[in-house]
Amino acid sequence: MLRNTLILPETEAVLAARLLQDAIDTLDIVLLLVLGSDAQSLQAVEWADRLADRTLLADGRNPRKVVWIRDATAAEVRAILDGVLGPGRTPRAAILDFHDNVRGELAFGKPFDPLTLELLFLAGTANPVGGGT
Amino acid sequence: MRRGLAPLALCVLVGTPAARSQAVELLEHVQVREGDRALASGSRIEPDAEITIQIDERALLAALSGPARARLSAAEEQRLRLLPEVFPMLLDLERLHLEYLRTAELDTTTSFAQSPALLAWSQRSRTAFERIDAIAPLESQDAFARELRKLVNDVLLGTGDFEAVVRAGEAEIARLHASLEQHLREGGSLSFQIRARLSGGGGAGRPVHVVGYDEHAVGEPSYVPRFQTLLDDRARAELEAAESLEELVEAAKDGTLKRELEAARDALREQLDVLQTSLRSGTLLAAVDQALAALRTSTADGAAALVGRLTRLRIALERWEGLRAPPTSASDAMALIAGELTRFLDEATAALAVLAQGLEGLPAELRSVLADAGESTAQAVEATLGALSTDTRAAQVLKRWEELRASFRRARKLSESTLALAETARSISASETLDTSLDLVTAGPRSTGDELTITFEVSRVRPGEDAPVEVARARITLRLDFEGFHSVVRGALLFADARDSISGDGSWEPVPAIGFFVHFGRESWGSLWNDVLDPGIGVTLAVLDFDDSSDVEIGVAGALTLFDDILWCGYGRNLQAEADYFYVGINPLALGGLWQSEGE
What is the residue-wise DSSP string for B66-78? Predict the structure, then answer.
């Protein structure tokens, strides 16, 4: 069960775009965007969700959140991604810090494991507010 | 050596290829401490200090293992360097994580972005995991790298713990170290030696027992009080030296000393003449000149070598001839005290030594050359040989000299052997600690200002070689002194000048005195204050002689001292003569210590 992951609908692009924008606009979280619907992306989502448990508090608050964008090609979603990641960029995963700056990416085709994803999450929270990478 | 994870700091000096070529800095692997305080050369220690010496055996081995280390792969070197760094980080992460959870749950008003606990945990985690990522890259085919990565992933996914990671890392380091030790053994065994000596007031000092490294006897514990008013052995000796100097100064003032010294100088001149006659250096010089002239034209085997030797002998003979008379210009007695006589005696002894060495075995060599020499050469050499062998008095002098030299050599060798027997060089091994300690309380008499010198030495014996070769050596010198206030009782010779009218001679009277002084030392004030100026303030008591009608006159004065109580000055009152006086003074014993060389 994915407790910390928002799975964007593939069939409703407008809704998916709105949910993605809401997630990005949510204050005080670092957001791990996972793109793609293949088995590797599923594995990444499952691991990332469990890694997000590491910062989950008893009252349900969590500075980590995962968004699984199974279809990043829909125009509405793509437009938002272009604004956040840069035009045309489609990594396997990317981490946005508290201020929605991209702090790290995992390229498609590159092997990864939980440690790789944890380092991505940490890149989002290990920088002081307003600080660089 | 710290047990637990810290010993695995083996990597600290494994370092880069550039570091390999550097000489081993022993002190980088040795920590000398007094309690919790790390000491360096020049540090001050309490006179009753117990000094602990901690050696990082693994780092030392690694530093000494240049050729052996070269057999490790770059990845293995990286492991040795990074793993010990990462262990404490990993274990610290648990604490930081709990700190984050606790503070974030208690404080719902502070945002995550502003949470110091989350930031600290994240930064520390990132640093540690980046190290792991470097030690065990994701695509590595190495078994250890894969295992390490898996164990860390287990922790991240909640199915493992960091202790398993650390255990695996320790096992890997132990394996790598065993490999290093094996290579080191092939390159010869390494031994480690520590020696300590305590010196004060000049001289080479005496050995101090270093536990496990020597069998020097230790004395009964003797504590050096921070505040004391007792006249201890040193103060008593200083007072005696002051009394002797007082007599000397008085003798110099009334001319007695000058007469005595002149008599001694004349006696010395007479004795040297006797010695000169015994050696018959004049006869020898003429014979040597004759032999040299003949040998220079000779083609006999060994003639050239003999010319060189006879030339050196001639120089020594000339020098000896030049020393026939002791200094005659030293009409001033104090000039002799100042060193002219000492210099003369030193030169005479040195010349005699060269002479004895030059004559050693010379008759035998002359005979061997004589066998093949031409007629004129033979005659000249015969003359030299005759001068050497028929002069029994010269032979006696040289024989006596040789006996002295031999007994000196034996004594020196015996003392060196005894010291060597009492000292233990210990093998360096990663599995056995080299740590030790030394306790100054059992080191016998000592005073503030004394110096404790600790020498560290590493030697290597290669297979098939008997003698160890020194690989590295380091030394630190610590000064015994109190931190803060402490007091001492010292003796000195004062020159007191009466400031009121008196019946006797009160003009710069030399008088022995004792003083009680308080010093204040603080390491942070630096060497100029503590070791050079070292000022003291106190009171002095002196037996004066201002009033011809008084049998006993005691002077009490305030005092200031400088340079470890070498120079004194003050102002006080003669209680019986009821006269004030000013004085300056010196501590002759401490002053004499300045002239003692370190190597004595």
Answer: HHHHTTS-HHHHH
